[in-house]
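Section 5.1 Outputs to date
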Amino acid sequence: MTYSLKDKDVLIVGGGSDIAAAPATDLLQDGARVTLAGRDAGRTAAAAKAIGGTVRAIALDLSDEESIRAAAAQVGTAGGLDHLVSVATGFWTGRLP
């Protein structure tokens, strides 16, 4: 059985990084609707433009709950998100409860 990515909504977290370009390009070629998400909105938008096609860019800071909520409202179509790819890097600097 073959699984198709055609018309599937895919979010790539860490989308402003150079490493996001390869999976985004492959997903687009397979017919997916790709959204890049990254902390630096300008860098993420530039990455989306460089990739081309219909890839979208949104701001997302995973350390900020409001940013996560805002990004979630922008991702996917009425059916929601189908796949998540994370190429995000970083380290946790907070405290666990």
